[in-house]
Amino acid sequence: MADTHGAAVSGHGPGGEVTKRDMIKLVATAGAAIGVGALAWPFIDSMNPSADVLALSSVETDLKPIAEGSGITVVWQGKPIFVRNRTPAEIKEAQAVQLSQLIDRTDGLDKQRVKAGHEQWIVLIGICTHLGCVPLGNKPSDPRGEYGGWFCPCHGSQYDTSGRVRHGPAPLNLPVPPYAFTSDTKIKIG
Amino acid sequence: MAGLHKSDFANPVINWIDTRLPVFTMMQKEYGVFPTPRNFNYFWNFGALAMVNLVIMIATGIFLAMNYQPNTELAFASVQHIMRDVNFGWLLRYVHQNGASMFFIVTYVHIARGLYYGSYKSPRELLWIFGVVILLLMMATAFMGYVLPWGQMSYWGATVITNLFSAFPWIGPKIVTLLWGGFSVDQPTLNRFFSLHYLLPFVLVAVIFLHIAALHITGSNNPLGIDVKTPQDTLPFHPYYTIKDSVGICVYLIVFAILVFFAPNYLGDPNNFIEANPLVTPADIVPEWYFLPFYAILRSVPDKLLGVCLMFGSILVLFVLPWLDTSPVRSARFRPIYRLFFPLLIISVVVLGMCGAHKPEGIWVTLSRLGTFYYFFHFLVLLPVLGKLEKPLPLPESISQAVLGGRGGGPLPSGAAAKPMEKA
Ligand code: HEM
Ligand code: FES
Fold first, then answer.
1. Do B11 and A2 touch (CB under 8 A)?
2. What's the CA gap between B104 and B349, in Å, rounded?
3. Contact state of A51 with B92 under an 8 Å Cβ cutoff
4. A42, B238: Cβ pair inside 8 Å?
5. Which of A12, A118, A130, A155 is catalytic?
6. CA distance B262 to A19
7. Most buried among A18, B20, B36, B137, using CB within 10 Å?
8. Bridge partners, A158 (sequence order)
9. DSSP helix/strand/coil, A124
10. Sheet containing strand A165-167, strands side by side
11. Which residue of A has its CA nearest to B8?
């Protein structure tokens, strides 16, 4: 306490030099601060996903009902997941795109975004990488934008049939969630 | 009165704020240099402990509320979800649950301290009245909190306590319907109890602020019950009482931790592990331990209305206590007869608590009547009369004289006093 009120009890020596009392105060304050800090952790951690939320971490999806040229939305960890059955024309178009044409070039090749042998299926986390809206385009009647994939109604971002952003403001491609084919017509997401 | 404050703080940031809003000066005045009687014993720790406890309740409560569902279908399961799934949820809940018990232990000791040392007497009557308001708010908060987990005891406790109001003729049943928001304890009741359980602790914060504000006008009482006369009777609050309170807080936290980590359900009722069932009342229904003495008073008389009136009266009588006690001497140390009766009051409350925990049969009925009789006799008859009859012991001249008399007036810790004391 550097102010005048506290001087009488501050414990500093007459010349203001460091004393044993200063050391004791420092240790006591540090001890209390560490204790309170340690106690804060359970409170903060209680806001992290709880065990039951973590347990909802995978879903199985049947691909049979999805007609060629359209997609469905399934929920995984509370997020919309697009599963789309691409037409041969769409696949060809997606494969022909060069990295130089892309805004986001990481995982930009179509073959990096599908499972080998299952090129017909594209699985994406359906959250616009701009500000989080869900783009339109699963149904053939939806607006799909100039690139035939998805169109975000919020600020006009456009994605192609591989889920790559082709027109801003979104900066990144739609991410591919972890998934695997459990049979030819079933996938397990997560 | 407008104008900037002239701040003495050297730190430029603190000085800048303090000049515009002198909160640092206020803290320095009220908790730094605040002149505090030099002769406090450890009973003077319990107010600070209660404040710490309230902070703990609010912190754990807010985090519990993030996962709790005030819905009769979901409440019980959401508390189990807190216990099993939420990270550290078990800790938050056990701290909150046992925190309520700790809160009452601390507050009851705090009140007993006030009764023994006459802290309710002039000029601290208003301070005392705020204290009784705090007690009532705490009780309401704890009662409604206990309903939230929606176990059998929650449900039947809520039913019984709200039904107390039905004892009042004519308006009684209307009050009960109003409290319930229906014709039994149900969804509307649970929902509003949650709302109020969240609100009341913040009302408590406000009333405690007034309690402390009033304290800082009158100054603290002390174990001798005599007024502070000279600066030699006092010590600056910091560091003397910040340290003494810190010692108390450490002991308090150890006791609290033992409860939470080794006996978290010791004070709880096993029936509350069963989800509420509006069609089956558990065989033994008892309130939480801190309500037992009042519960015993309620059951001590066979008349419904009289029982309810006595129960509420047992707290309301505390409001007028400053005027019931006619003795001008505060501390029981100098009241030889009051000092003998004081333990009887404590014993009567403890015995009432034991009666509350047992079925009202045989000896327990007699004991609860004796306890109730003594409780009211003490406040309504003994205190008014004793003040007139009792001859108090001579009071010491001053706090410093009484404190330093025994130790021969040796040198004092630096800052404790400006000049050496004369020998007593
Ligand atoms: C004066 C301070 C408080 C007291 C005395 C108090 C008391 C209680 C009690 C006795 C219970 C029942 C514990 C059980 O058997 O599980 C409870 C539950 C609860 N309280 Fe509080 N409480 C206080 C402050 C708060 C605050 C500020 C909140 C914030 C919203 C809160 C939120 C809750 C919740 C969500 C529950 C239900 C979860 C549970 O049963 O553990 N409490 N409270
Ligand atoms: S959120 Fe999709 S474009 Fe802005």
1. yes
2. 14
3. no
4. no
5. A155
6. 41
7. B36
8. A151, A167
9. strand
10. A148-151, A158-160, A165-167
11. A3
d(CA B61, ligand 1 centre) in Å = 5
Q: Is residue B244 among the annotated active site residues? A: yes
Q: What does pTM read for this prediction?
A: 0.82
Q: At what angle do helices B304-319 and B363-377 cross, to 10 degrees?
A: 40
Q: In what order do the strands lie in the sheet with A59-62?
A: A59-62, A186-189, A179-183
Which amino acid, one-letter code, is at B397?
A: E
Instruction: Find which of A1, A9, A52 to mutate to test the B interface (most B CBs within 10 Å of its CB).
Output: A9
Cβ distance of B8 and A5 shorter than 8 Å:
yes
Mutation pick from A5, A10, A41, A53 vs chain B, by most beta carbons of B within 10 Å, is A5
Distance CA B396, CA B405 (A): 10
Report the alpha-carbon distance of residue A35 to residue A44 in Å, rounded.
15
Q: Measured between CB atoms, which of A5, A48, A50 is closest to B33?
A: A5
For chain B, 424 residues long, give each residue's pLDDT as a single digit of tens.
578 888 889 999 999 999 999 999 999 988 889 999 999 999 999 999 999 999 999 999 999 999 999 999 999 999 999 999 999 999 999 999 999 999 999 999 999 999 999 999 999 999 999 999 999 999 999 999 999 999 999 999 999 999 988 988 889 999 999 999 999 999 999 999 999 999 999 999 999 999 999 999 999 999 999 999 999 999 999 889 999 999 999 999 999 999 999 999 999 998 999 999 998 898 888 899 999 999 999 999 888 899 999 999 999 999 999 999 999 999 999 999 999 999 999 999 999 999 999 988 889 999 999 999 999 999 999 999 999 999 999 999 999 988 887 554 444 454 444 444 433 3
A54-189: CATH, from 2.102.10.10, 3.20.20.20, 3.40.30.20, 1.25.40.10: 2.102.10.10
Sign of CA dihedral B161, B167, B173, B175: negative
* Residue-by-residue DSSP string for A28-53: HHHHHHHHHHHHHHHHHHTTSPPHHH
Which of B55, B63, B64, when mutated, tests ligand 1's pocket best, judged by the most ligand atoms within 8 Å of its CB? B64
How long a stretch of residues is chain B?
Answer: 424
Beta strands at A79-85 and B234-236: parallel, antiparallel or unpaired? unpaired
Q: CA-nearest residue of chain A to B56?
A: A39
Token pair in block for residue A125 = 């986390």
Within 8 A of A53 by CB-CB distance, chain B residues are 85
Count of other CB atoms within 10 angstroms of residue B32: 20
Compute how many other C-beta atoms are within 10 angstroms of the C-beta atom of residue A106: 9
CA distance A83 to A122: 6
Instruction: Scan for tokens 């569902």, then name that residue.
Output: B69
Measured distance CA(B290)–CA(B353) in Å, rounded: 8
